[in-house]
Write a structure and sequence with these properties.
The complex is a heterodimer.
Chain A lengths: L10 H9 L3 H23 L2 H18 L9 H26 L2 E3 L5 E3 L13 H19 L3 H12 L4 H7 L4 H18 L5
Antiparallel strand pairs in A: 1-2
Helix pairs in contact in A: 1-2, 2-3, 2-4, 3-4, 6-8, 7-8
Chain B lengths: L1 H13 L5 H10 L4 H17 L9 H16 L5 H5 L4 H7 L4 H13 L4 E5 L6 E5 L13 E7 L5 E7 L3 E7 L3 H13 L3 H11 L6 H13 L3 H11 L7 H13 L3 H10 L7 H13 L3 H12 L6
Antiparallel strand pairs in B: 1-2, 3-4, 4-5
Helix pairs in contact in B: 1-3, 7-8, 8-9, 8-10, 9-11, 10-11, 10-12, 11-13, 12-13, 14-15
The chains are: A mainly alpha, B mainly alpha.
Bound molecules: zinc ion (ZN).
Zinc ion (ZN) binds next to helix 1 and helix 3 of chain B.
């Protein structure tokens, strides 16, 4: 998404203007990144509503603190840091909620998570054709949810959004090596969880 | 030994993250080893399986709604510490224009010359900020344009006269195809305090909407200009591009949904008629047909939807 097209206004110029309090410049910056932010947040949360909240929090935070941006990294990295931090918070909260969620016992004596049984409410336009796909999607989603928030984030940025591991490391304030190891761990867990599907 | 190394790196290979030499080594090994080939196949399969969970693009509605909500919040939000450390008065700065001259000057130089280094400096005493742009000494507008006074076109020709201020007012003449003239027009369209001048420059720019910079300036005017007449002019210039340029289509869609002026919205609606079958356009039309405040737009959106063939 970043850096495409001829004649695109340079981020650096816009950032400097935003730092001087120019709101139009800040809004132009928002437009450079906001679709990518929504895409990421929607995929992570599975909800437009929650994605919108993350969007709002992220850009308000960016607006308030853009004065402290020192051009030590690209603005792209900076804004992604804010967004991924908010997403990580979101994932952590969700995990806590899941741990507190009522656990029931099914007839075979195995415990299952009640919340996981609730349909997600997104009705497909063509239920018959979509059924398989949705079942698959649900399986993948619940496998992803079993990752730790950090593993999930690394996997999300690498697999679904195609960021380079070096960038993933930068965004998550860690090294490329650590990002790589986290990706390995996440992949192993996912392969385990989805082993019967291959 | 070799196989262990390959298995450790196969995931990076699938994700295109192996350095060239390692990739070469791995590719040399694969045809000679069935185990590792099987491992690669299984990694690829896993990769494809995970990709069955699609990454959806946010709908134009969601994008527009999110932007609107953010804009509302920004109205009442103060920026942090850096803001207060500034030596000039930011309120006065904001009152001047919706888009500051320093930025506009930088924009068109960057836009045309591409990547010229820009530096800013604070001008002491007066408390205002001016931009210093290095390089290309031949540009008339380079460091110190403070505003465009007037723009006029010779009747029956494409000669344009532009009066602009640097420290003192200057005047320049040239053909519409002249890059220097175009720069000044772009500058004026984005930047001038006087809406009549913005109107003139947008009007002239619409004569060359093929130029991507011009189109960008028109999109900018459509989004940000405070004067509905200027926005309408910009819309007219963009109309021919709703089919071929998705950015133009998005901007027109945005105007249709959010513009404060019903005339601008109506015009946007008409311009979108040729692309009404486009999914993003259709989604917006459906929303308008359901619950738009403006009865005319509501009815027109219904009409346009009714003319669409049923599918999906
Ligand atoms: Zn081998």
């Amino acid at each position: 998404m970043a850096g495409q097209g001829l004649g695109r206004i340079d981020d650096t110029v816009l950032v400097r203007e935003a730092q001087r309090g120019n709101r139009a410049a800040f809004e132009e910056l928002v437009r450079h990144y906001d679709q990518a932010v929504l895409r990421l947040a929607m995929h992570l949360t599975g909800s437009e509503h929650e994605a919108q909240d993350i969007y709002q929090d992220a850009f308000l935070k960016a607006y308030k603190s853009v004065g402290n941006f020192r051009f030590e990294c690209s603005f792209y990295t900076w804004i992604y840091r804010i967004v991924t931090n908010l997403c990580l918070d979101h994932l952590r909260k969700k995990q806590v909620r899941k741990e507190d969620a009522p656990v029931a016992t099914d007839p075979t004596g195995e415990q299952y998570d009640v919340l996981e049984q609730v349909p997600d409410g997104r009705a497909g336009a063509n239920p018959e054709r979509d059924l398989m796909r949705r079942e698959l999607g649900t399986r993948i989603s619940s496998a992803l949810e079993k990752l730790t928030p950090r593993e999930r984030m690394v996997f999300e940025l690498k697999h679904y959004h195609g960021l380079k591991l070096r960038t993933v490391g930068e965004v998550l304030n860690t090294t490329e090596e650590t990002a790589k190891n986290t990706l390995f761990r996440a992949t192993q867990k996912l392969r385990g969880a989805l082993a019967d599907m291959r | 030994m070799k196989c262990d190394w390959v298995k450790e790196n196969i995931l990076l290979y699938v994700y295109n993250e192996l350095p060239d030499d390692a990739r070469y080594e791995l590719e040399q090994h694969l045809p000679r080893c069935t185990d590792c080939t099987a491992e690669l196949k299984s990694s690829r399969k896993f990769h494809a399986l995970l990709s069955e969970l699609p990454v959806e693009e946010p709908s134009p509605n969601l994008v527009a709604a999110s932007r609107m909500r953010l804009q509302e919040a920004l109205e009442t939000t103060k920026q942090g510490s850096f803001w207060h450390r500034l030596i000039f008065d930011p309120a006065a700065w904001l009152r001047q224009v919706r888009f500051a001259p320093a930025l506009a000057a930088a924009i068109f130089i960057v836009g045309f010359a591409g990547g010229i280094a820009t530096t800013y400096k604070l001008v002491g005493g007066s408390g205002s900020v001016s931009s210093m742009i290095s390089g290309t000494p031949s540009q008339p507008a380079e460091s110190s344009i403070t505003g465009i006074q007037s723009i006029s076109q010779e009747p029956g020709s494409n000669q344009v006269t532009i009066k602009y201020n640097t420290v003192s007012t200057q005047e320049t003449q040239g053909s519409l195809n002249d890059q220097r003239i175009q720069q000044l027009l772009l500058f004026a369209a984005r930047n001038n305090y006087n809406s009549g001048v913005r109107m003139d420059s947008v009007d002239l720019l619409t004569q060359q909407p093929n130029d991507t910079h011009v189109r960008e300036a028109l999109v900018y005017a459509l989004r940000y200009d405070s004067n509905p007449g200027v926005r309408l002019k910009a819309l007219d210039g963009l109309g021919a591009y709703v089919k071929s340029d998705p950015r133009v289509r998005d901007a027109v869609l945005e105007a249709l949904m959010n513009d404060a002026n019903p005339g601008v919205r109506t015009e946007a609606l008409h311009l979108l008629d040729p692309v009404r079958a486009d999914s993003s356009v259709r989604a917006v039309l459906q929303r308008l047909a359901e619950n738009d405040q403006n009865q005319y737009i509501k009815a027109q959106a219904r009409n346009m939807l009714a003319q669409l063939p049923e599918f999906d």
